[in-house]
Structures are given as structure tokens and as C-alpha cells.
Amino acid sequence: MARPRNNPGDLAELPTELRTDRPKGDQIREILETLTRSLSAGTVLPSERVLAERFGVARMTVRQEVDRVVAEGLASRRPGGGTFVTEPRPARMLASSFSQDMRARGITPGAKVLEHRVGTADEALAAELQEPVGTPVLHLVRLRTADGEPMAIERTALSLRRYPGLEELDLGEVSLYDSLSSRWGVTLGMVSASIVAAPPDPADSEILGIDATVPCLIITSAPRTASGEVIEFGRSVYRSDRYDITVAYRAT
């Protein structure tokens, strides 16, 4: 178990000097990464001034490396309160549902329904779902949480021709994929997804409780059943500061 560190000025566990044969920035980043992984979440890290003085480098050099560690999700800044170690980021396998993956890691998944409406598929959506134009569709937007922490906003559309009665379920209380499996016999197969890094729009950043400058993972996906039928078509926004996406593939 990581040992709490209450004194940010205590650098006894850190090297006393940097090597001369490697870039100083790289060494400082590695030191910070090692430190964050050895300490408990919420522990304050040594200040940029303290680190700069210890290693004889400019504060700007230290600040750049702290920025990198924050971007990796290993630490976070609190205005006026320094830099702290964060909770380890849960990682999701794309070839699994959010709920299934979180439970497999001992994390409690949650969902809050932000939008739940029935419409019809226009030409573009019908093509993505591989359904006729005008097919009844459930449009669903949910805030996904892990142990109560906001993690993602999932926007998706599902064919009600394939899953009649899906619109009657409370998908804030039950797992979508558990329901698809138990009621319609759906088995998740291949997942086709596009993943890009981009800042969230203002509305999404407010829902996720993050600054609008924090990068997010924008995932557009069309999961299929084991038999190749499209299950849903969606676009989701995941916090990259608290979330990893793992992609499994077979080399050929």
C-alpha cells in the first residue's frame, strides 16, 4: 500500500542530483512519475520551487514536467493548494461495456440519464445502424460514473425495431448491455471505433466537472454483436485525466 506523505518538503526518497548524460527534463519527469506511483492519492507533491532548488534547474523546466505528469493523469492541481497525487485511472477495454469493465476492476459503475427520447432514423443514422430510414430509434445520453466520480458522457442511438421495449427501461438504474443480453440475447462482438483527443465543449466540461482546457477522448463507435449486427451507434466523451482506453487487437 502506498505510504501517505504529509510533508511536501521532505525529499529524502528522491535522488540528490541529476545525471549529466541525460536531459534534465526527462529525469525530473521520471522522478515525478515514480513518486506519484509510490504515494497515496491526495498526497501533496513537492513544490516546483523546492524541486528546482534541489536539482539546480529553472522552475520553468520543473513546471513543464509537472504539466506532463498532470496530463498523464498521475497528479492534479488545485488552485492555491499545490499539486496532488490522483487516484489511479480505471482503464476500459473497448471490447466490453462500461459497467462490465468497471465491475471487473472492483469499481462501482453508475449512470445518470440526461436525455431519453424516441425518434426516427434519418438517412445518416439509418446507414450507421444498418436499418431502414424512418426506423424507430432510442436516443440516449448518460453521464457515466466510477465510484461516484464523473467519467464520461455517452451519447448513443439504438434501433427499437431490433430491441422493442428498450425505451421502457430505466437505464439510469440498469445496465444497457446487461439488459440487451438478458432480454434480447445480445453478445458483444467486434467494436469499430474512432478515438481522437480534443477539448470538451463548455456544456460537457460543466457536466464532467472539469476545466474546458482538459483534453478528452472523443470516441465514435458502432459495436456489433458476435454475429455482426450493429448494436448501437454513439459518440462519447471520456475524461482523459481520469480514464484510459485499452484496445485489444489480433496481429495478422
TrEMBL record:
PROSITE patterns: HTH_GNTR. It holds the Pfam family GntR. Keywords: DNA-binding, Transcription, Transcription regulation. Residues 18-88 form the HTH gntR-type domain. The keyword Transcription regulation applies. The keyword DNA-binding applies. It comes from the Bacteria. Residues 1-23 are annotated as: Disordered. InterPro entries: Bact_HTH_transcr_reg (IPR050679), Chorismate_lyase_/UTRA_dom_sf (IPR028978), Tscrpt_reg_HTH_GntR (IPR000524), UTRA (IPR011663), WH-like_DNA-bd_sf (IPR036388), WH_DNA-bd_sf (IPR036390). PANTHER family: MANNOSYL-D-GLYCERATE TRANSPORT/METABOLISM SYSTEM REPRESSOR MNGR-RELATED, MANNOSYL-D-GLYCERATE TRANSPORT_METABOLISM SYSTEM REPRESSOR MNGR-RELATED. This is GntR family transcriptional regulator. It comes from Kribbella koreensis.
